[in-house]
C-alpha cells in the first residue's frame, strides 16, 4: 500500500521534477549541491519556523525543500548516472532533515508544556531513525529492506498534516498524528526485522 502510494505519487511528480532537473543541470548546478541546499532549506523551515510555533509556515517550507529529495537523484540519473558518494550524501542528509523536523516539533511541544506530545515526538525521532538504520544495515550486509508501512515519505506526510492542522487551529491534531506515527513506526521496525530475518535464514551465515 505504501509502495503503491510512493510509486503513484512519484510518477505524478515526474512531469514537474524532470524539467526543473534539466534546467538546473543546464545552469551548472550539481546534484550534490541540490542535496545540501534541500537539507539547509528543511533546517530553516523546521528550526527557524516550526520550533518557534509557526507551524503552517514551517510545514510549507519543509514540504518544498523535502520534495527536492526527488530532484537530486533525477539530476544524477540525467547527467550520466548516480554516484556512490551521491547515494551516501542523499541518505545522510535525509537523517539530518528528519532529526531537525522531529527535534523542532519536540522543542515546540516542550515550550507548550505538552508532555504527551513531547513523548510521542521523541519516540518518532528515535524510532524513525531506527527504521532507516535497520534498512541501511541490511543493505550493508547485502540484503534488501525496501518494506514497511511508514517509510520516510509517509512519516513526513503524517507529521506534516498534523502540524498543518494544529497550525490552522485544530488543537490536538499534531499530538494525535505523532502518536499514530509512533505506533506505525514501531510496526515498521518489526516488518523490516522480519523481512531481514527471512532473508538471513535463506542465505545462512555471514
Ligand atoms: C505541509 C504539510 C501538509 C501535507 C501536504 C503535503 C503535500 C505534499 C505534496 C505532495 C506529496 C508528494 C509525495 C511525494 C512522493 C514521493 C514519492 C517517492 O518516491 O518517495 C520516495 C523517495 C525515496 O527517496 P530516496 O531513495 O532518496 O530515499 C531513501 C528513503 O527515504 C529511505 O527511507 P526510510 O528507510 O527512512 O524509510 C532512507 O532510508 C534513505 O536514506 C533514503 O535515501 O522519497 C523522496 O523523494 C522524499 C520525498 C519527500 C516528500 C516529502 C513530503 C513532505 C510532506 C510534508 C512534510 C512536512 C513536514 C512538516 C514539518 C512540520 C514542522 C512544524
Ligand atoms: N546527490 C545525489 C543524490 C542522489 N543520487 C542518486 O539518486 C538516488 C536517490 O534518488 P532520489 O530520486 O530518491 O533522490 C541515490 O540513491 C543515488 O543513487 C546521486 O547520485 N547523487
Ligand atoms: Mg534524493
Ligand atoms: Mg533521500
Number of strands: 0
- Cα-to-Cα separation, first versus last residue: 32 Å
Q: Provide the CATH architecture.
A: Up-down Bundle
- Quaternary class: single chain
**What are the secondary-structure elements, in order, as H or E?**
HHHHHHHH
CATH fold-type name: Four Helix Bundle (Hemerythrin (Met), subunit A)
Blueprint (SSEs and pairs):
Blueprint: H1 2-26, H2 31-49, H3 55-66, H4 69-78, H5 84-111, H6 115-140, H7 152-167, H8 173-203
Helix pairs in contact: 1-4, 2-3, 2-4, 2-5, 3-7, 4-5, 5-6, 6-8, 7-8
Bound molecules: ligand LH5YIG7M, ligand L45E5XJ5 and magnesium ion (MG) (2 copies).
What can you tell me about this protein's structure?
This protein is mainly alpha-helical and 206 residues long. The protein has a single domain, classed as CDP-alcohol phosphotransferase transmembrane (TM) domain (Four Helix Bundle (Hemerythrin (Met), subunit A), Up-down Bundle), CATH 1.20.120. The protein contains eight helices and no strands. The protein is globular. The two termini are 32 Å apart. The model has no long low-confidence stretch (mean pLDDT 96). The structure holds ligand LH5YIG7M, the ligand Nc1ccn([C@@H]2O[C@H](COP(=O)(O)O)[C@@H](O)[C@H]2O)c(=O)n1 and magnesium ion (2 copies). One magnesium ion binds at residues 69, 90, 94. Its main location: membrane.
